[in-house]
């Protein structure tokens, strides 16, 4: 049974590092050194200089993950969440570079600016059944905040109409206290996660520069139809980001 009353003791004790799954990356090295020259894929490009900056960022994110993962895994255990896809917690080099290059092209910005605001180079998914979802998100986020992680952004898509194309998820980003690394956590239900996996395939095609406006509209409608079928757990639309230091009232709310 989920109980916020156990949160203060968990915060005081700190994360249990034994909760972390076996490490899957022994060293922070990029294939072929990340490439000495520029990068290009799907009509997108990074100069040699920007590619080096992306490679340096990837190595830094990999090193920071070593201190972030114990906290996220412990928060998952305390909130009775399933830590889904832990092996994919580090964004792949090509995926990161594709995202940076797309944003630079769309916004007319620099690689430095886009890397500074990138939240999902280190990312996690916590998942619950519908009945445990709202309490689980509350506990996990309170614990992470109590350990000094700053809530950087909190997007609760349960509060918006699914038929408008909003996925059924709380998408949050955090700043780690030691490394200063931004990282992302998606809080999912099982049905929401499955819909998101299918919808992401459609989104990947939708965001490509070569995709026509007509095709983009069609893909967006298909995503909306997927998300509209996901059940909404009680209290999910009201979930909000935790304060920097959760109050005793919040921690005792359902104790």
Fold topology:
Elements: H1 7-13, E1 39-41, E2 44-46, H2 48-78, E3 82-84, H3 93-107, H4 111-117, E4 123-128, H5 130-146, E5 150-156, E6 170-175, E7 182-189, H6 190-206, H7 213-228, H8 248-251
Parallel strand pairs: 4-7
Antiparallel strand pairs: 1-2, 3-4, 5-6, 6-7
Helix pairs in contact: 1-5, 2-3, 2-5, 6-7
Q: What does this entry look like structurally?
A:
The protein has 255 residues and is α+β, with helices and mostly antiparallel strands. It has a single domain, classed as Beta Polymerase, domain 2, CATH 3.30.460.10. Helices cover 45% and strands 14% of the residues. The protein is built from eight helices and seven strands; from the N terminus they run αββαβααβαβββααα. The protein has helices at 7-13, 48-78, 93-107, 111-117, 130-146, 190-206, 213-228, 248-251, and strands at residues 39-41, 44-46, 82-84, 123-128, 150-156, 170-175, 182-189. The chain has a five-stranded mixed beta sheet with strand order 3-4-7-6-5. α2 (48-78) crosses α3, α2 packs across α5 and α6 (190-206) packs antiparallel against α7 (213-228). The longest helix is centred in the N-terminal third of the chain and has 31 residues, at 48-78. The relative contact order is 0.16.
């Amino acid at each position: 049974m989920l109980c916020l009353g156990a949160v203060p003791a968990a915060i005081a004790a700190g994360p249990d590092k034994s909760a972390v799954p076996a490490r899957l990356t022994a060293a922070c090295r990029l294939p072929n050194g990340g490439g000495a020259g520029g990068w290009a894929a799907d009509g997108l490009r990074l100069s040699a200089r920007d590619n080096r900056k992306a490679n340096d960022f990837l190595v830094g994110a990999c090193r920071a993950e070593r201190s972030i993962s114990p906290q996220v895994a412990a928060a998952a255990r305390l909130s009775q969440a399933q830590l889904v896809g832990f092996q994919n917690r580090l964004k792949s080099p090509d995926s990161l570079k594709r995202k940076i290059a797309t944003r630079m092209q769309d916004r007319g910005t620099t690689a430095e600016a886009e890397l500074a605001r990138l939240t999902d180079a280190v990312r996690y998914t916590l998942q619950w059944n519908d009945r445990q979802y709202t309490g689980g998100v509350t506990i996990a986020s309170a614990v992470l905040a109590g350990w000094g992680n700053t809530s950087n952004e909190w997007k609760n898509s349960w509060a918006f109409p699914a038929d408008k194309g909003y996925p059924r998820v709380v998408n949050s980003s955090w700043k780690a206290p030691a490394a200063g690394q931004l990282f992302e956590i998606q809080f999912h239900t099982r049905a929401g996660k499955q819909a998101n996996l299918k919808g992401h395939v459609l989104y990947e095609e939708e965001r490509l520069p070569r995709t026509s406006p007509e095709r983009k509209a069609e893909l967006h409608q298909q995503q909306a139809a997927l998300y509209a079928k996901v059940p909404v757990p009680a209290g999910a639309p009201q979930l909000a980001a935790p304060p920097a230091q959760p109050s005793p009232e919040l921690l005792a709310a359902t104790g």
